[in-house]
Design goal:
By secondary structure, the chain is of the alpha+beta class. Helix content is 63%, strand content 12%. It contains 10 helices and 7 strands. It has a 5-stranded mixed sheet, covered by helices on one side. Strands 1-3 form a two-stranded antiparallel sheet. α6 runs antiparallel to α7.
Length: 330
């Protein structure tokens, strides 16, 4: 369309030249042969410039299509292929030399190749920096976990000198809290779940540890059942969940009559939310957390629920405490 508009002056010039030509056929009493000849001359004078205009338009269209449109289409396809390809494939994609075009088109191709190379180099640097950051973060969590284990071992040694069951139980509760943090740091950057914490693995290991830490003269037999689905939660939710399970299990040990102690930890997921529930016979009937709201255990439980942006729910009929929270960042 642009070429047709640009060639319009040539067509207008052809019409003007024809309008200024000789008179029409048959003027001045000339013979019909001479009039026919002049008619052909007039027709040629009219159509030849128009044919030249069409020929110039066709030539210009062919030149533009060959030298500009096709190379630009080829560049567009190669850019699309570059954007859709993987990182190794992008380093082999080159526009310059893959298309035919004028100097300007080749300069454009060279500029895009230079830009693509710079982007690839920057992306490699970012991936390398990210990998190093993950390695350092994993190393920090590993060191924290080792330090917590050392603290737990020191508490275990100190508890051996306890002179009463109450003091021994206090040491065990502190160890259980430290062990909860240790297990969170262990699973925080597990290779199998790089985007979060495996709730099933975390709570399963915690339940096994609680069976030991909750042993006491009042409860010589402790069973902590873990029924957790394959759920991955955000790392920020792992610490509150670990403390909730630990504190609720310890609370159950306080309110269950002497004898075997059974605690059940379950999970469910629905509508983008995860529900953690801890059930025990000691939770049936009375809401012990509401009744002892100022005690450290109750304050810790409510604090962890607030970190999860959730409310602690108590089911007196089934003896269950539960919290529901988003699987993403709390």
């Amino acid at each position: 369309m642009a070429l047709a508009i640009a060639m319009l002056p040539l067509g207008a010039l052809a019409i003007m030249l024809e309008l200024q030509g000789p008179a029409a056929i048959g003027n001045g009493g000339q013979g019909w042969r001479q009039g026919l000849r002049q008619g052909w001359q007039q027709s040629l004078g009219l159509y030849v410039p128009l044919l030249m205009w069409f020929a110039a338009l066709l030539t210009a269209w062919f030149a533009v299509n060959r030298l500009i449109v096709r190379p630009l289409d080829a560049i567009s396809r190669l850019i699309d292929a570059y954007g859709a390809s993987s990182d190794p494939a992008r380093t082999r994609l080159r526009i310059q030399g893959a298309i035919q075009g004028g100097t300007e088109i080749q300069a454009l191709a060279a500029s895009f190749d230079a830009m693509a190379d710079a982007i690839d180099a920057h992306s490699r640097d970012l991936r390398g920096a990210l990998a190093e950051q993950r390695r350092l973060t994993r190393e920090v969590h590993h060191r924290v976990k080792n330090n917590l284990q050392i603290i737990s071992s020191l508490l275990s040694l100190q508890s051996r000198t306890a002179d009463s069951p109450e003091v021994l139980q206090t040491y065990a509760l502190i160890q259980a809290r430290i062990q909860a943090l240790t297990q969170v740091h262990r699973w925080m950057y597990d290779d199998a779940t790089s985007n979060g914490v495996d709730l099933q693995a975390l709570v399963g290991e915690m339940c096994a540890g609680l069976e030991t830490s909750l042993l006491s003269p009042h409860h010589p037999l402790v069973t902590v059942t873990c029924d957790i689905g394959a759920i991955v939660i955000h790392p920020d939710a792992a610490v509150p969940v670990a403390f909730l399970v630990t504190e609720l299990a310890s609370l159950a040990a306080k309110h269950v009559a002497p004898g075997p102690l059974h605690v059940r930890v379950t999970s469910a997921r629905a509508a983008g939310k995860v529900t953690i529930a801890v059930a025990s016979a000691g939770f049936a009937g009375t809401d012990h957390i509401a009744a002892t709201a100022l005690l450290p255990t109750s304050r810790i439980i409510h604090g962890m629920a607030r970190q999860l942006r959730s409310e602690l729910a108590h089911d007196a009929a089934t003896g269950t405490y539960s919290v529901s929270f988003a699987a993403g960042p709390p």
